[in-house]
Write a structure and sequence with these properties.
Blueprint lengths: L7 H16 L3 H11 L9 H12 L9 H16 L6 H16 L8 E5 L5 E4 L16 E3 L7 H8 L8 E4 L6 E5 L21 E4 L3 E5 H29 L5
Antiparallel strand pairs: 1-2, 1-7, 3-6, 4-5, 5-6
Helix pairs in contact: 1-3, 4-5, 5-6
Amino acid sequence: MVQYDYDKCVCATIVSAYLIKKYKKSLYVTLLRVNRLANNPFNDFNNGFQMQLILYYEMHYRLDASKSKYRYYLLNNCLNSLLGSQIQEHRTVLSSYLKKISKAQKKVTLKKTSIFRCSDCDRYLFSNINVIRDQRYGFLECDRIFIEPRKWMIQSLVNAAQDPEESTVHELCCDNCDIRLGEFDIVRKFGCICLLHKNFEDYLAFKINKLCVKRVEKVDQIKSLFMKLWDTIDSCIESIQLRIETLDFGF
């Protein structure tokens, strides 16, 4: 027996999550089964709880940050919170989002096939995991790069809070060299009609200029590390040879 003295919606969500995991059934099938047996059918779900339960089933009963649906769910909550708060509170909202996504990422192995660095100071900015696009069209390219919020954006949010202008569009700058990397618009967002982005308009709030970043593929990263290692070994060999040549063995 489950009693609810405070929030029936929370109670229904907890019970449904338990049944979904136990019987390995979707939310829809679970609710049909419960409502046939219960005297008081579970109809008290808000959209947020429903989405969480759907994701809970699709991700096999765990938080999986490698799944784009879960990342977009967190991103949508973050953008809604940013939109519903004062601009002075954006730093707190973004920090809370980053903590949630970081906690989820620690439990899975992310497939980072490429990373993006600042073209001016070489600071690491984001990876392919953070890029918003329809993965079904992986071979296509767009002139724009839209990404999830990142920690280095916090300073840009602080600067936007101090901007006297009423524009909704603000600069995104590298927190290391202060070069402009793009812009963000939490209110109106940026529309894009290409196949990669046309179904993700609600998430296109942070836009990066392609000319301001450089992309490094995983293969290139491995090559770079190998070359650095080889240079180190080569330098050590030269030092040893030089040392041997200067030694007097008495011959």
